[in-house]
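Lay summary. Proteins are chains of building blocks that fold into shapes, and those shapes determine what they do. In this project we predict the shape from the chain. Here is one chain we studied, written as its sequence of building blocks.
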Amino acid sequence: MTRLPGQSYISAARIRRRVRILATSIRKTYRSRPLTIVALLKGSVFFVVDLLRHLPPYTEVEFWNVSSYEGTRSTGQIRGLEYCRGNFRGRDVLLIDDILDSGLTLARTRDHAKKLGARHVDICVLLSKKSKRMRAVKARWVGFVIKDLFVIGYGLDLDQRYRALPSIRTLPS
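And here is the predicted shape, written in a compact code that computers can read:
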């Protein structure tokens, strides 16, 4: 049996329960309005798929591949945003990301969605680290508030590895 990296932090069962609660709240909020979800890849892949299983089937979905991390550190630069497209004119957009830490990625993608015509942009994240915020970004929906730790699993990676872990684990930073 292969030993898992790091220490257990948030179990798969806790994640599943929290995703259902978040989806219920999102569904109620957008009950009478069409919604476009913009999933920020690659980290949000498992989170957005699990959320979508609990949202109406007519929910529109876009995937934007943006990145600012190399290893365990943010570069401060958002790569890939110039390729992100969509016609959001007059639509409500919900940005879905794995983690809100510095706020740089979500601030830039929120602004980009507005430039593409979004009427309103909300944010939903699986994890939030309040201590690292560099930009004023507030997520309307947060799965878990966590300490300033480097985490992997459930889509979160270290140099493209460990995304497929079903739970969230911590690594020394």
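What the prediction tells us: Helices lie at 12-29, 45-52, 104-115.
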